[in-house]
């Protein structure tokens, strides 16, 4: 444990600029380590990435580092300045003096302005609460994924600092204890005001081969076609320390402000051995709508419901992640193009993440990122449950791709990538319909077989699609590359379909009469197989194999009058419904 006393025998101190507290993964040997803020920037070229106690903590810590970099370097002013930094291995040389200048505000235990805390914060009864309130892997109620249940008795200062940053970003909602000096407290309680700001986001960032590259790829210029920051944009440590109540209502001035937004008021209780308790309540509220010009690390969706509620012509809300969907299935959102200020007409249904839009500008208009440059689109998000009072799940995924997919002047690669996802969706739908037909032929329930078949299909396509996308940037003909994907997907889904048919049993083989609309027809596994093969070929094309050609129904064959060999009973039933 680091000695918390100052060298002069003064009050306790834990200086985040010099004490190790940020977990990192070293690039060369894969070793994990903990570094101070100063060391992280000095060694950024030798580090693979930050590693948090949970993925959302990594996202919160990255945003803290970005706020420091933006403020210490005071930029980037524009793409030209960004390009100078990209070529300069010593681009973070000004960070040490910056941290020295603000050292007092980075002291976790400072008696007057402790880092991201409020000195003297107290409840009317001077209660001190369990650290469960800030440690996200031990939520109030049920275990998440931890070996520390039922409670966290103590934390070292390094880990406590990480959870303080995470709390401002991802703290849950619900009723919180009122504190002295907060006018919102009624009968000792403050009623729900929403989760921490980052908890509302479907977090998106670009990940490079080193932490240095990751930081630079996500350093968005102050003014772009789709993003802006005010001249007075500054982080929390360059503002007056917070009091117990909320600051006067205001909108964020830019990313430095937003990445360090003080959405909570908290105070750690500690002794020489570490932290043993906390006081936590709400801080500065932040409306969710129309911050798309300020917040670049999420996709934004247009909300007609909020437009009616707020009486505004266009309202955009952060778009969250779906925990059941891999990142590649939402690729169209990541590659969505934001209309520029000069473009008019109808509002876009979605706005792409600003960090990826910035990379698109660097790759397209400026030419500073070569087309073949590879990066990983990383997504991170918290899924809340029970009125947002607990974190149920954390989304964490990454997708490797080439910068050419972001190119705005050559959309062929992005279009083929998105179309390949649509191919997968259609093929999995065909597989789900096969499972329904087999279940109906056997006289069984259909909901379970459909969902299990769809899940099996997406799981089987996951690794092949990621590998295909990674190679797309190097393809000379993206349409030809997609044709290879369609052939591979056809083989994968056909193989699963054959397994389903083989396992359907005698009842499905014998079949039964089913009713659709006003008609009856005989459904068995042979009919389901013919329909499956035909429709799979229709959505993905027929591979060049005699077996596949033989499986496709002859278009001259009349077949059953209803619903027809090309239409499974499942699809016909949906159409009639």
What do you see in this structure?
45% of the residues are buried. With 577 residues, this protein is an alpha+beta fold. The model is unreliable at 139-147 and 545-563 (pLDDT under 50). α11 packs antiparallel against α12 and α12 runs antiparallel to α13. The chain has 17 helices and 15 strands. A three-stranded antiparallel β-sheet has the order 2-1-3. The chain has a three-stranded antiparallel β-sheet with strand order 6-12-13. It has a three-stranded antiparallel β-sheet with strand order 10-9-11, with no helix packed on it. The protein has helices spanning 37-42, 55-73, 79-87, 95-101, 157-170, 211-217, 255-259, 304-310, 331-334, 354-363, 412-441, 447-472, 478-502, 506-510, 525-540, 546-551, 569-576; strands at 22-26, 32-35, 47-50, 176-177, 189-190, 203-207, 264-271, 274-282, 300-302, 316-318, 350-351, 374-385, 390-402, 512-516, 519-523. It is globular, with a radius of gyration of 28 Å.
Please state roughly what percent of the residues sit in beta strands, choosing from under 5%, 5-15%, 15-25%, 25-35%, 35-45% or over 45%.
5-15%
Number of helices: 17
What's the overall average pLDDT, rounded? 90
Strand order of the largest sheet: 2-1-3
Helix and strand layout, with pairings?
Elements: E1 22-26, E2 32-35, H1 37-42, E3 47-50, H2 55-73, H3 79-87, H4 95-101, H5 157-170, E4 176-177, E5 189-190, E6 203-207, H6 211-217, H7 255-259, E7 264-271, E8 274-282, E9 300-302, H8 304-310, E10 316-318, H9 331-334, E11 350-351, H10 354-363, E12 374-385, E13 390-402, H11 412-441, H12 447-472, H13 478-502, H14 506-510, E14 512-516, E15 519-523, H15 525-540, H16 546-551, H17 569-576
Helix pairs in contact: 2-5, 11-12, 11-13, 11-15, 12-13, 13-15
């Amino acid at each position: 444990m680091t000695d918390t006393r100052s060298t002069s025998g003064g009050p306790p101190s834990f200086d985040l600029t010099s004490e190790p507290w940020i977990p990192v993964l070293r690039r060369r040997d894969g070793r994990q380590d903990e570094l101070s803020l100063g060391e992280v920037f000095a060694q950024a070229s030798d580090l693979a990435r930050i590693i948090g106690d949970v993925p959302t903590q990594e996202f919160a810590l990255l945003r803290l580092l970005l706020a420091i970099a933006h403020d210490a370097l005071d930029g980037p002013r524009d793409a030209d300045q960004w390009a100078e930094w990209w070529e300069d291995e010593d681009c973070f040389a000004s960070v040490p003096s910056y941290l020295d200048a603000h050292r007092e505000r980075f002291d976790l235990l400072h008696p007057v302005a402790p880092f991201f805390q409020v000195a003297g914060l107290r409840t009317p009864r001077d209660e001190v609460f369990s650290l469960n309130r800030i440690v996200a892997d031990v939520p109030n109620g049920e275990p998440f994924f931890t070996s520390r249940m039922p409670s966290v008795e103590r934390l070292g200062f390094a880990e406590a600092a990480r959870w303080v940053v995470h709390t401002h970003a991802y703290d849950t909602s619900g009723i919180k204890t009122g504190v002295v000096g907060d006018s919102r407290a009624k009968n000792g309680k403050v009623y729900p005001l929403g989760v921490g700001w980052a908890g509302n986001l479907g977090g998106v960032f670009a990940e490079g081969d080193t932490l240095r590259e990751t930081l630079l790829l996500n350093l968005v210029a102050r003014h772009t076609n789709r993003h802006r920051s005010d001249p007075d944009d500054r982080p929390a440590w360059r503002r007056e320390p917070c009091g117990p109540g909320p600051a006067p209502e205001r909108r964020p001035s830019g990313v430095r402000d937003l990445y360090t937004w003080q959405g909570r008021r908290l105070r750690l209780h500690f002794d020489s051995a570490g932290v043993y308790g906390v006081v936590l309540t709400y801080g500065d509220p932040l409306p969710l709508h129309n911050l798309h010009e300020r917040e670049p690390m999420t996709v934004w969706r247009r909300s007609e419901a909020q437009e009616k509620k707020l009486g505004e012509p266009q309202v955009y809300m952060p778009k969250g992640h779906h925990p059941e969907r891999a990142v590649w299935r939402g690729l169209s959102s990541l590659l969505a193009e934001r209309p520029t200020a000069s473009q008019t007409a109808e509002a876009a249904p979605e706005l792409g993440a600003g960090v990826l839009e910035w990379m698109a500008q660097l790759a397209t208009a400026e030419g500073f990122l070569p087309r073949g440059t590879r990066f990983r689109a990383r997504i991170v998000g918290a899924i809340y449950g029970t009125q947002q009072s607990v974190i149920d799940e954390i989304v964490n995924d990454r997708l490797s791709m080439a910068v050419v997919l972001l190119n705005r002047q050559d959309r062929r690669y992005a279009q083929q990538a998105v179309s390949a996802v649509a191919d997968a969706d259609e093929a999995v739908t065909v597989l789900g319909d096969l499972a329904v037909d087999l279940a109906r032929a056997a006289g069984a329930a259909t909901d379970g077989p459909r969902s299990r078949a769809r899940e099996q299909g997406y799981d089987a396509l996951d690794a092949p699609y990621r590998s295909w996308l990674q190679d797309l940037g190097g393809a000379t003909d993206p349409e030809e590359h997609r044709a290879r994907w369609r052939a591979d997907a056809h083989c994968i889904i056909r193989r699963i379909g054959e397994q389903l048919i083989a396992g359907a049993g005698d009842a499905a083989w014998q079949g039964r009469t089913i009713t659709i609309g006003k008609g009856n027809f005989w459904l068995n596994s042979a009919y389901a197989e013919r329909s499956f093969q035909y429709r799979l070929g229709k959505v993905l094309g027929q591979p060049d194999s005699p077996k596949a050609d033989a499986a496709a129904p002859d278009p001259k064959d009349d077949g059953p009058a209803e619903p027809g060999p090309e239409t499974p009973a499942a699809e016909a039933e949906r159409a009639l419904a």
